[in-house]
Amino acid sequence: MSISSIATIAPVVLDNVWKKDGTNVVRLRFTYQRDKKYLRTNIVVRKEHMSRSGQIKDLTLREKVEHLVNDTQRILSEIDSRALPYMSLDDIIKYVEKRQEQQKVFQLDFFQFCDVILSEKTGQSQKTYGVAVNSFKKYVGKEEMDISEITSSLLRDYERWLTNKHGEGARAISAYTNCLSFIHGQARLRYNDEETGIINIRNPFQFYKPPKQRMSKHRSVDVDLIQQMLLNRDSLKGREKMGVDVFLISFALMGMNSPDLYTCAKPKKGIIHYNRTKTRSRREDGAEMFVKIDERVLPIMKEYFSDGNEFAFRFNEMYTSYQIFGENVNEGLAQFKKRINYQQPLTLYCARHSWASIAYEAGVNKGIINDGLCHVDRMMKVTDIYIKKDWSVIWQANAKVLDKFQWDSKTAASHDAAAEKEK
Description:
The protein has 423 residues and is mainly α. The chain is 49% helix and 9% strand.
């Protein structure tokens, strides 16, 4: 005796369970040994989908229902005919539900899960991960992506794409791929159960390792290049001029990064007070910084001071985020680099490295350089709690660095002409 002749399945839409919004769901009616039960499905119908006789008239929905019925009948056919006489209708339905659950293909929209992880982060970390996710989204070219599509070969292709875009050894390559690795790891942690052998998400990072961030010694530029910026800035236009000017401002403010240039408050009595975004959560002092504006850089800074809001500069009026601001600065520096045929890396981050290198060459103590950069130094962490920082010493160090340059373009030009004549 076949199972189909004993246990039957029929799709039905019950008249007494229509919702106020005009929707209902298809149920599978199981009949077995004069018993009858209904199994709810996830197929939603509307009244306009139904005929007067209560049948589904929408062809797409009908095909979907027929497929589900056929699949359920196939599951029923798997029941051992010798066990069937000892099973109730509840047992049969439980068997069907269990088999359907086992046959489900695990799906997880990676970008939706990224949003979950981003909501759990705060401050600079949240912004960094957000930039990484948007970069990966731009690369794959879509807003939705199942996590199963992320393979080691895709990640290697993404790394090559980042290298072509940002240059060999760029910080973004390591940072973005490591962000993806962390997010993917969180998905595996939450949806896999390796102890019981449930692996819903395979790990492509077993076969792909994000590159380590290279040491940044090559990121500093020499005095001559910065002097060229001062000599040429008045003849530059548009994004190129802005890129060069922001580099000089950052350099003169002891390597202030783009997030802090974008959000720092207006100076008071010639001093900019801010908390460094990158390290504020990792320092006992909240990465508090007081930077005295040197008179020599003030004319450049005045061109970008804000009139209307609480921020020092109008960069937040020009660009919608500090990331976009930073990208435009670097694009401007790339134009200047091409103009002078400079062969080494040149980004805004180079201003910070250059300040440290030139300060050291000028005889500034490494401890003072560390304070000027507001780094996280594990060796000094406890000591910093007890020692009150003397900002005047740091400002004097900055003045030593700025002394290396002719900040007035006319003075610098005549100085260079005189030097050339002596030769």
